[in-house]
Amino acid sequence: MFDFVRVYLNFKIAASDGICGALAPISPDLFVNACPRFFDGFFVTLELLLLSSVLGFLIAVAVVLARVSSSRFLSIPAHAYIYVFRGTPLLVQLWVLYYGLGSMGAEGLGPLWPFFKEGWWVGLLTLTLNTAAYVAEILRGGIQNLPHGQIEAAEACGMTWSQRMRRIIFPQAIRIAWPAYGNEVILLMKASALVSTITVMDLMGQTRTIFSRSYDLSIFLYGAALYLVLAGLLTLGLRLVEARMTIPSFTQPKSPR
Amino acid sequence: MTSQGTAGNDYLSVNNIHKDFGGLEVLKGISFGARQHEVVSLIGASGSGKSTLLRCINLLEIPEKGEITVDGKRLPLSPSGRGHRHITNKRDVRLFRASLAMVFQNFNLWAHMTIRQNVMEGPVQVLKVPKAEATEQAEALLARVGLFDKLDAYPAHLSGGQQQRAAIARALAMQPKILLFDEPTSALDPELVGEVLAVMRDLASEGRTMVVVTHEMGFAREVSENVVFLHQGRIGEQGSPEQIFQSPQTDACRKFLASVL
Description:
The structure holds two protein chains of two kinds.
Chain A: H1 2-23, H2 29-67, H3 72-87, H4 90-102, H5 105-109, H6 113-116, H7 119-144, H8 148-156, H9 161-191, H10 203-214, H11 218-245
Chain B: E1 12-21, E2 24-34, E3 39-43, H1 50-57, E4 65-70, E5 73-74, E6 77-79, E7 85-87, H2 90-98, E8 100-103, H3 115-125, H4 131-144, H5 160-173, E9 178-182, H6 190-205, E10 209-213, H7 217-223, E11 226-231, E12 234-239, H8 241-246, H9 251-260
Parallel strand pairs in B: 3-10, 3-11, 8-9, 9-10
Antiparallel strand pairs in B: 1-2, 1-4, 4-5, 6-7, 11-12
Helix pairs in contact in B: 3-4, 3-5, 4-5, 5-6
């Protein structure tokens, strides 16, 4: 684990140095000077995004299972969670958790204070909870669009609930939901720029800092270009997963009537 | 002849089944039985309740009243508050279901699995058969229904007739005591009906106990030992195929046969 972290940290430095070095001869001075900062921000955004989408996905699975459950004790809280996180702006969620909770300070939050005083942690938490709500709904769409016969066939041969979920429902739902899920990841990437308002030095935060030193508007174009690069990488990653999951002509079984 | 039901030596006995859907009474007390190695055909107009009856037998629908016994084992339903029945023990129900294999009108093969995986899935997951053994069994069963060259095909790549034959192999893989067929040829193009009926005939001739909801009167007449005619949620008439098809006793049955033959 620590090995992995060290390798990753070295990779970040090497990537930043390498790319900035390679771009230096062909870039304006403005970019050359700002380049390492841009890459700092780029990696902060990338890390937040990867962590929150993985954690958010896991939470979403739990939430959607509760959401489609026939037990009201599970489905109502899940519904409420989704309603709150989809129904309020991400910016508000960030500010409530960071400035709102944070205002309670060390006395109010006790052992939680070290967590809530860090913009990065609050940013990760909020992005995770926010995306989990959307992904839960996306997965629900996948689950509820499954032809009922698929589930009946599993029931008829005596499968348990968890076998039906694991073996029949989820593997199909994820394939149905994948394009919509990919869309959500891209949206999350762009929404993540809002964490810069709670002191996180992500790509947007760095871009604004660099701008505030130079007042050169082209800085924002460089920032946008890096977001585009990130979007390209994400799209590529999503496509690779999709290709791995693809089943030849996986379609909804035709309904004959 | 009507609804006197269940001799003690029946392998499957269905007793006084009632089912309603939100006040609409679909089954109004149905009893019939099947001996081991016997084929029973359920016929009747659409809306007569024959598919619902079949779905009640393996609890895809939970009957409000009645009892079902397979090979001496009573279906684990128990009365709840308002005289309705509910499932007491989910595990018993699963075992019960696993002993009755269902073949659906729309095949319902799992779309994300090859047909070999479809046939292996129940044995491996439910019956805990080792994978190697399940693979061997799946290949043998698929060979039997004439699909050995399609083992790795996905359902979407198969014709309806091929899908239904694969679904029959999937049902056989569960080593069921009774095979239930819910209008197995109704969703098929006419030229594909024959290949599925051929497989079913083959199963009947090797002594499988089968309950078949069907519109194929030729099949019912030729293969079944017993024909049950359902009419408006009740048993209109039952008896041997000769009796039902050559000298139906009730008007309803005569009318129905006139409309389909």
